[in-house]
Amino acid sequence: MKKIVIAIDGFSSCGKSTMAKDLAKEIGYIYIDSGAMYRAVTLYCIEHDLFDPDGNIRTEALRQHMDEIHITFRIDTATQRLHTFLNGKDVEEQIRTLEVSSKVSPVSALDFVRHALVRQQQDMGKDKGIVMDGRDIGTAVFPDAELKIFVTASPQIRAKRRYDELCAKGQKASFEDILHNVEERDRIDQTRTVSPLRKAEDAILLDNSNLTLSEQKDWLLDQFKRVVYE
Ligand SMILES: Nc1ncnc2c1ncn2[C@@H]1O[C@H](COP(=O)(O)OP(=O)(O)OP(=O)(O)O)[C@@H](O)[C@H]1O
Ligand SMILES: Nc1ccn([C@@H]2O[C@H](COP(=O)(O)O)[C@@H](O)[C@H]2O)c(=O)n1
């Protein structure tokens, strides 16, 4: 069977990584969460005092640090979950906090950050057989991807899903804070100069507001089969 590249883009917290992970597992492809890479750079900035007291990025200092930021992924054999490592340390939990979520979009708007991460992402996909989710996968990272999906759902539904997830994990969360974060990230991601979040012309639009997890999984598998067997 021919191997392809699958790009899944869309708005914050709409289910991109759930869909990408499920599909990759089903078809035996590599799964890469590109957002985790931007989150890891943001965590590095927090840990290395690269935000000033007003919360602005110390851009030139970060530029100097870029060569010292190494991001890798490893599967946790016990849970089969993909974990993100920053300079050899498992940071999977830390990069999912609201603090990182509230700082990540300005970091990911920086051209030199994008340049460095996009190069690594393209390298990960050079042999195909990969599902990658993010904001610019179908437009900038893999513009020639054989299958491109753009996912959306209403901000309220997305925030509720994230809120339920955090509550289920026993983490304290405010629905209003999460909704604000989701809307603010969408705004910054869509209006940045470099590779703004937008649907690639040849991407298939999916509004999953009213789809169950199992319905969206089946829908995506059908899209994959259509491309691979056509
Ligand atoms: N169709 C669906 N119905 C209900 N819940 C869903 C659906 N799809 C995903 N979810 C849930 O929504 C939450 C967010 O999903 P996920 O983390 O996959 O989104 P994402 O788009 O990758 O988010 P982010 O952009 O923040 O990385 C998760 O708790 C997931 O289980
Ligand atoms: N290809 C990408 C992926 C992500 N970003 C930025 O990172 C933030 C976090 O991503 P999540 O997928 O984990 O939500 C996101 O809000 C974007 O600012 C990106 O720019 N490009």
UniProtKB/TrEMBL annotation:
Residues 6-224 form the Cytidylate kinase domain. It is found in: Cytoplasm. Pfam families: Cytidylate_kin. The keyword Secreted does not apply. GO terms for molecular function: kinase activity. It catalyses: CMP + ATP = CDP + ADP; dCMP + ATP = dCDP + ADP. The keyword Transport does not apply. Keywords: ATP-binding, Cytoplasm, Kinase, Nucleotide-binding, Transferase. ATP binds at G10, F11, S12, S13, C14, G15, K16, S17, T18. It comes from the Bacteria. Gene3D superfamilies: P-loop containing nucleotide triphosphate hydrolases (3.40.50.300). Its EC number is 2.7.4.25. Belongs to the cytidylate kinase family. Type 1 subfamily. This is Cytidylate kinase. It comes from Phocaeicola intestinalis. The gene is cmk.
